[in-house]
Amino acid sequence: MTPLQNFTAALHLAFAVLIFGVLVLKLFHDYRIDALRDRLFALREELFDYAVEGKVSFDDPAYFRLRQLINSLIRFAHRLTVTRLFVGEALTSRKWREVFGNPLLDWQKSVESLPKEQRQRLETLHMRVLETVVRHLVTGSPLLVACLIIFVLGAIIKGLTETSLELATRMLSPQLDALQMQAIAADVSDRQSRELAAAH
Amino acid sequence: MVGSVLNAIIPWAGAGIVAFYLYSSVATLAGRYTFAQIGVSFLGDFKLSEAFAYLFGTGGVAYGLRQRKLRENNIERMAARLSAYETVQDPKRSSSRLTPRGQTRPEDGT
User: Fold this and answer.
1) What angle do CA B52, B53, B55 make, to 5 degrees?
2) Hey, which residues 177-196 in chain A have their CB within 8 Å of chain B?
């Protein structure tokens, strides 16, 4: 290949990388934020419907604080990134707590004052909100996706190993019984011979 | 603040590296070929299958953008009604403070 052909090939590659970058870093990035907001809106509607059913009052702090939390996450969904999770949290959380107090603790206190059924429902909803955010964070980071795959494969291998061991234990049950009996007999025999030796 | 800076740095650093290598390769050709020759070689090197791939990709992006516009139009039309209904039930209703089309407010930054 001539230098010009080499350069043209490199230019094609750079062009393809550029448009792929626009697709991933702009278009797909925007889509992911919209998708996260959509899921959070669905959870907020579920909370609203629960209040419409009369299960919890609109004026209850547990209701409006959870709604406010979901609203904040919807509003600042574009700022929910892994970088912020690890870097921003470490640098800013203490300062923020000094200024804003701890709204999550306030919410937890107000939830604890609710009857058991309502409390469980709101806590479950809150957990689903957090799961939605975690899903967004994990799927947005190639590093975390790789970690997740390794974790899932590890869990599958661990599960398979445990299942295989259980199965093998059941299958070898008669032989294992004999083995246990042999060990017990050997131990008892040894103790008896030691006791006899001590008596003499 | 730190998070915003890092989020901005990572893609721009990638783009800078690509630009640097592109510049380096152009520098080696300096004085040997004109931009016109490079341009003709670039366009002439396109194969029909590649052209279709680019067309397919561009079409997909255009389709996605049109769908997004349609969805935002729908949000703009429906959100006000939903808000009015919810305010009747809950007069102190709090809002997500997105724009009427469901986008991030410019003042909320990146």
Assistant:
1) 60
2) none
Q: Which chain A residues touch B7 with a CB distance below 8 Å?
A: 81, 83-84
Candidates A32, A79, A81, partner chain B, best to mutate (most B CBs within 10 A) = A79
pLDDT per residue as tens digits for the range B51-93: 888 899 999 999 999 999 999 999 999 999 999 999 999 999 9
Q: How far apart are CA A41 and CA A28, in angstroms?
A: 20
Q: Is A97 on the interface with B (CB under 8 A)?
A: no
Q: Where are the alpha helices (DSSP H) in chain B?
A: 2-29, 35-44, 48-89
Contact by Cβ (8 Å): A26, A20: no
Of B2, B14, B18, Cβ closest to residue A87:
B2
Identity of the amino acid at B73 = N
Q: How many CA atoms lie within 13 A of A181 on its CB side?
A: 6
- Distance CA(A66)–CA(A72), nearest Å, equals 10
At residue A37, what are phi and psi to the nearest 5 degrees?
-60, -40
Interface contact flag, B104 A33, Cβ < 8 Å: yes
Tokens of B88: 């009747």
Residues 39-78 in A contacting B (C-alpha not used; CB under 8 Å) = 41, 44, 48, 51-52, 58-59, 64, 67-68, 70-71, 74-78
| The model scores a pTM over 0.80 | no
A194 CB burial (10 A radius; 0-12, 13-18, 19+): exposed
Distance in Å from the first CA to the final CA of chain A: 97
**ipTM confidence:** 0.74
